[in-house]
Amino acid sequence: MLIKLLEEHSEELGIVLQNPEKFRLQILYTMINRDQDNRPDFISNEYRLDTTHYFYPASSIKLPVAVLALEKLNEINIPGLDKETALRIDSTYSGQTAVFYDNTSLMGFPTIGNYVKKIFLVSDNDAFNRLYEFLGQREINESLWGKGYKSARINRRLEIGLSPEENRATNAMTFFRDDSIIYKKPAQMNRDTPTVQMKDLKQGKGYFKSGELIKKPIDFSYSNYISVRDLQAILKSVIFPDAVPEKQRFHLTDEDYKFLYRYMSMLPRESDIEAYQDTTTYPDGYLKFFMFGDNREQIPSHIRIFNKSGQAYGYLIDNAYIVDFDEKIEFLLTAVLQANENQIYNDDKYEYEEIGLPFLAKLGWIIYQYELKRNRPHPPDLSRFRVH
């Protein structure tokens, strides 16, 4: 069904659909039908899903790490320790940096909750790195594998370019309230050096490192990875926890889910962080690639996109649950493509605006228009997701 839909719109989808191998295109679209008790049933349609060839997941991996951080707070289960508890981050190993203050936080100190907010509002890389350090490299991967998300390989921090050994080590942290220490998380070291083992780990003709062009393929062996199927499965577990096997769920409270839904769907201009309210820097489509990623228009208030996207090395990924409260439609959509014509990595010369974002926006609208027309056994009750 998805293939037929794409073919019907091949002219609009342009060169990406004409040459999906070149653009490393993968799409997973899941229809949602509700029964009379509002229980969801899922019908998945896939296009070129591939778990053997590597793609760089960029910031899409921030979703599972943000959710795991909230889960860990619940599992520690110490009175006074929650997502709003202030913390200090120590520097205990090569490449690490300490954090004592956060001027985007209402109380001026870092908190797990504020890092989660920053991840979903503007995809802040430092926020991801701090949650990676809170959890520890080994714990992140083993937690995801234990829930059945076997493809996950979260092996490194983002942006700061640490060595594989430095990424195995994560910082000590102290959680406090006023002058009282509530919890101390020790520094950790993963005894293993995890790698990604797939085809196509070496990509391109060259890459820039420290301003110098290295004329050989970039090697992603020690990088991050997660499959399109697992990305959507994690999103489904967060959005529809009661509809997935218990093993696949995250241990979250009702308040955790409301918090996630609020910030996964919040637009930067709606934030209480003043720096994010500038729509010139952060238009509505800044992180909402499907439907709105190719323009600077305001997203209508009746449409909400609960997602985590990613963009790096020419790769664009979006992983979204999209709802229209007025039309009573909902669907899951996950896609990845790469737009890197010169096959040089880290040169900031990618065809995001020319090719990648227009394709994802158009894909989102095509699926949305199909959802408007298709028959549903029962209209969904979407009140759970009215969080603004």
Folded structure, characterized:
- This protein has 388 residues and is an alpha+beta fold.
- It has one domain: DD-peptidase/beta-lactamase superfamily (Beta-lactamase, 3-Layer(aba) Sandwich), CATH 3.40.710.10.
- Helices cover 30% and strands 20% of the residues.
- The chain is built from 11 helices and 16 strands.
- It has helices at residues 2-8, 10-18, 62-76, 112-122, 125-135, 137-146, 164-168, 228-239, 254-265, 289-292, 352-373; strands spanning 26-34, 40-47, 86-89, 169-170, 173-177, 180-185, 188-189, 202-203, 206-209, 212-214, 218-219, 303-307, 310-312, 315-324, 329-338, 344-345.
- Strands 1, 2, 12, 13, 14 and 15 form a 6-stranded antiparallel β-sheet that branches. The chain has a 3-stranded antiparallel β-sheet with strand order 3-5-6, with no helix packed on it.
- A hairpin with a 4-residue loop joins strand 14 and strand 15.
- Helix 4 crosses helix 5 and helix 4 (112-122) runs parallel beside helix 9.
- It starts with a helix and ends in a 15-residue tail after the last helix.
- The model has no long low-confidence stretch (mean pLDDT 98).
